[in-house]
Amino acid sequence: MTKEKGTVAVIFVSKRAATDPEGYGTTATAMMEAAARFPGYRGVHSARGTDGVGITVSYWESDEAARAWKMESEHAATREKGRSTWYEWYELIVAEVTRSYDWRRPGA
Questions:
Q1: Residue 1 has pLDDT above 80, yes or no
Q2: What CATH number should be reported for the domain whose range is 8-96?
Q3: What burial class does residue 69 get, using C-beta atoms within 10 Å of its C-beta: 0-12 exposed, 13-18 middle, 19+ buried?
Q4: Which of 9, 59, 74, 108 would give a disulfide with 42, using CB separation of 3.0 to 4.6 Å?
C-alpha cells in the first residue's frame, strides 16, 4: 500500500481495556467502513497484540481531510465512548509521508 508524498498518516496507538469486547468490535468495524467512505480517505493499517496494545494508521489526502474525519459526528461520539469504556490509554500522532515503498513476495 504505497502512499504518495504528502499523504497524512494518523497514527493511533492504544491499549484496550477488558470491557465490552463485543461492542468494541462492532463499533470498530463500523468506524473502519465509515472512514473508507469519507472524503480524502486513502487507506489503513491496523494490528493489536495479545497484551491489548494496538496501532492503527489511517491515511488521508491532506491534514484538512484528517481533521474533518476527527470532527465527523459519529466518529466524535465513538471517540468519547472509547475514552469512557474501551481504552486504558491512547496516543495519536499525525505525520506527513515523505517517502513510501512496498514489496510483495511473488505470487502473494
A1: no
A2: 3.30.70.100
A3: buried
A4: 59
